[in-house]
């Protein structure tokens, strides 16, 4: 996927390794992603990885964390 510069303003989006930097990519998409990016994320990463990021992340917004906790049925 070609990422928007607005999503990854602090680095060159063409240099992102989506496997190696999965937490970083997921956090940014959860907080700032558009529909296309969220759909890509849901296809690319399995639900357990997404849940782990939502539970452990200290950088996503509290509102984002609440939404995705409900969406992913995190316990």
Q: Helix and strand layout, with pairings?
A:
Blueprint: H1 22-32, H2 35-44, H3 47-56, H4 62-71
Q: Helical segment tally? A: 4
Radius of gyration: 12 Å
| Beta-strand content estimate | under 5%
Main pleated-sheet profile: none
Measured between the Cα atoms of the first and last residue, the distance is 31 Å
- Could you name the ranges where pLDDT drops below 50 across 5 or more consecutive residues? none
Count of distinct structural domains: 1
Find the count of extended strands (DSSP E, 2+ residues).
0
Output the helix-strand order: HHHH
Q: State the helicity in percent bands.
A: 40-55%
Describe this entry's structure for a reader.
The protein is mostly helical and 75 residues long. It has one domain. Helix content is 55%, strand content 0%. It contains four helices and no strands. The longest helix is centred in the middle third of the chain and has 11 residues. The N and C termini lie far apart (31 Å).
